[in-house]
Design brief:
This protein is mostly helical. The protein contains four helices and no strands.
């Protein structure tokens, strides 16, 4: 014998409707109320009240814990999907940025090599032109400093002693009124 065979059977909507129709027949047979006064709206509202009353009953703890577990696992799934999207974005975005920065670095290194090559060519041309006799370039004289600056020794400031500065006499100010 199964465990669920011993449990009381829940009422279905059909059972509730049968009970309603039986109760409405009892009322019409007594003559107090006729079946016509019961509209379908009244019957539907009673059904909805009974169904909502059944749904509002306290659920057992194990069912509540399973529902909470279901809600928690749903939230965990949404969170893990969001994390997966973020990780995917990072794994796609980071190499793309690295590739662009690497190409930029290679371009800068190429320009640096070109500048140093050009600098060496200019130095070579200057050295060759300095070796020619009619270029006008002269070897530097080691006895003279390479840069000629005017003499910048500081000169002392001389004060004129002819004008003696005497302090002024300040008159004492007395208050006019207290």
């Amino acid at each position: 014998m199964l465990v669920h065979d011993n449990l009381p059977r829940r009422q279905s909507n059909v059972d509730v409707q049968k009970k309603e129709s039986v109760s409405s027949r009892k009322l019409t047979s007594t003559g107090k109320l006729s079946r016509r006064k019961y509209s379908s709206r009244v019957v539907n509202s009673r059904l909805e009240e009974k169904i909502s009353h059944i749904e509002k009953k306290n659920k057992p703890f194990w069912l509540q814990s399973l529902m909470v577990l279901g809600y928690g696992s749903s939230a965990f799934c949404y969170f893990s999907v969001a994390i997966a999207f973020v990780m995917y974005g990072i794994t796609v975005y980071a190499p793309k940025q690295w590739t662009s920065k690497y190409h930029q670095l290679q371009e800068l290194q190429k320009q640096e090599r070109q500048f140093s090559f050009t600098e060496e060519i200019i130095k070579n041309q200057l050295a060759e032109s300095a070796q020619q006799s009619g270029s006008g370039l002269v070897n530097p004289d080691p006895t003279q400093p390479p840069i000629f600056l005017p003499d910048m020794t500081p000169k002392p400031i001389e004060l004129d002693k002819s004008e003696s500065v005497e302090p002024k006499q300040i008159q004492k100010i007395t208050p006019i009124a207290y």
